[in-house]
Write a structure and sequence with these properties.
- It is found in: Cytoplasm.
- Its EC number is 3.1.3.5.
- One of its GO terms (molecular function) is nucleotide binding.
- Residues 3-187 form the Survival protein SurE-like phosphatase/nucleotidase domain.
- The protein is an alpha/beta fold.
- Helix content is 30%, strand content 23%.
- The protein has helices spanning 14-23, 64-74, 94-97, 101-111, 127-132, 141-153, 207-213, 223-228, 247-255, and strands at residues 2-6, 28-34, 51-54, 57-60, 81-88, 116-121, 165-170, 181-183, 192-196, 201-205, 232-237.
- A 9-stranded mixed β-sheet has the order 3-4-2-1-5-6-7-11-8, with helices on both faces.
- The mean pLDDT is 92.
Length: 261
């Protein structure tokens, strides 16, 4: 198996190294990852990027989406799977899917018709704690183990016949044994607001605070509920946007030619 490995934390990030080492036991892994941190850029794409050889593959002066496109298009890699991560911090909930550079790399792979997996590490704490916590290889152990397990078994089980990509969020390794794994759906809970300051506007994601205190409103079966409970969350997702016909919108389209300006 050939794996294209990318991330949004940068090619020298510890989380990427953790996945590279773990997945290299199963497959030929080539990293094509951003030269610098590209967190929360979503599916942003550049018009030109530069490539440099790296001990793990290639360093790209661009976004995670750039890395997937460059790897498949310009570098002529032919991966059986694209893996993005392991991200330093969880990527949970519907509202994060379009914002996360990690998840966006998996989505871009899906549009190429390549199965993909986004892998992220959850650790308790506030948003400020997220900024300062620097996990070592050992802290990524459960995430790397889960990714390796899924890579080893998902194809044989026919997982990617139904799912375009998997969004995997793993907790820190437990003190004993290993975390359980649960198939989940992205949470719909949204708790972001903004407040005026002297200099402008401060945007606050209260989800981090609520996860830190355990005060979450996510129901069982959702990704955030599972990972806060110490479980590896695996959400099978599809990339194409879906559409629904609406009678009201059909009627608007029909009357449009007859409306006076």
């Amino acid at each position: 198996m050939d794996i294209l490995l990318t991330n949004d934390d940068g090619i020298d990030a510890t989380g990427l190294r953790a996945l590279y080492d773990s997945l290299s036991e199963l497959a030929e892994v080539t990293a094509v990852a951003p030269a610098e941190d590209q967190s929360a850029v979503g599916r942003q794409m550049s018009s030109t990027v530069t490539l440099e050889k790296h001990e793990l593959g290639y360093s790209v002066t661009g976004t995670p989406t750039d890395c997937v496109v460059a790897g498949v298009g310009a570098l002529s890699l032919d991966p059986d799977l694209v893996v993005a991560g392991c991200n330093r911090g969880a990527n949970l909930g519907h509202y994060v899917l379009g914002r996360s550079g990690t998840v966006s790399a998996a989505v871009e792979a899906a549009f190429f018709g390549i199965p993909a997996m986004a892998v992220s590490l959850y650790f308790p704490g506030t948003e400020g704690h997220y900024q300062s916590f620097d996990p070592g290889i050992e802290e990524y152990g459960e995430a790397a183990r889960a990714a390796k397990y899924l890579v080893n078994h998902a194809f044989g089980a026919g997982v990617f016949e139904r799912a375009d990509y998997l969004n995997v969020n793993a907790p820190l390794p437990p003190e004993e044994g290993h975390a359980p794994m649960e198939i989940t759906r992205p949470s719909h809970v949204y708790d972001i607001d903004a407040e005026r300051t002297e200099d402008g506007v401060r945007i606050v994601d209260h989800i981090w605070e609520r996860m830190a205190t355990g005060d979450i409103a996510d129901p069982e079966g959702t990704d955030r509920y599972a990972v806060v409970d110490g479980t590896v969350s695996v959400s099978p997702l599809t990339a194409p946007h879906t559409t629904e016909r609406h009678e009201a919108l059909d009627a608007l389209a029909q009357t449009y030619p007859d409306i006076a300006d």
